[in-house]
Amino acid sequence: MLKPLSPSRWDYTTAAHLLNRAGFGGTPAEINQLVALGPDQAVASLVDYENIPDPVANPDWAHPDPDRIKRYQAIRDATTPEARKQLQMEQNQFVQRSMVELRGWWLHRMAYGPRPFQEKMVLFWHGHFATSMEKVRDPYYMWRQNDLFRRQATGNWELLLLEAGKDPAMLVWLDQAQSRKNHPNENFAREVMELFSLGEGHYTEKDITEGARALTGWSLDRINQEYVYRPFIHDDGEKVFLGREGNLDGDDVIAQIVAQPQAARFITGKLWNYFAGQMPSEDLNEALAGVFRENNNNFKPLLEVMFRSEEFYDAEIIRNQVKSPVQWLIGSVRMLECQLPPPLLCMGMLRQLGQDLFNPPNVKGWDGGITWITTNTLLTRYNDAQSLVRGTPPNLTAADFAPKAGGQGGQKVAHLAQQLRMGGVQLDKIFTPTELANKDELVAALERRLLQAPLSGEQEQTLNEFLNAKPQLTHEDILTVIRLVMSTPEYQVA
Amino acid sequence: MKNEITLQTRRQFLRTTMLGSALSWTVPAFLADTFSALHANAADAATQIVTGKDATILVVLQMAGGNDGINTVVPYSSDDYHKARPRLGLTGDQVLKINGDIGFNAALAGFKDLYDAGQLSVIQGVGYPNPNRSHFRSTEIWQTASDADRIEKYGWLGRYFDNACAGSDPAVGVTIGNQLPEAFFARQPKGIVFNNPQNYRFLSGDHAKLGQPDMTEESYKKLNELEMSGNAPEENSGGSIASLPAGMPMQGGRAVDFITRTALDAQVSSDEVRAIAARVKNQAEYPASQLGNSLGLVSKLIGGGLPTRVYYVSQGGYDTHTNQLGTQQRLLKDLGDSLKAFVTDLRAQGNMQRVLVMTFSEFGRRVAENANGGTDHGAAAPMFVVGNTVKAGLLGRYPSLAAADLYQGDIRYNVDFRSIYAGVLEDWLKTPSAPILGRQFETLKVV
Question: What value of ipTM does the predicted structure carry?
Answer without folding.
Answer: 0.94
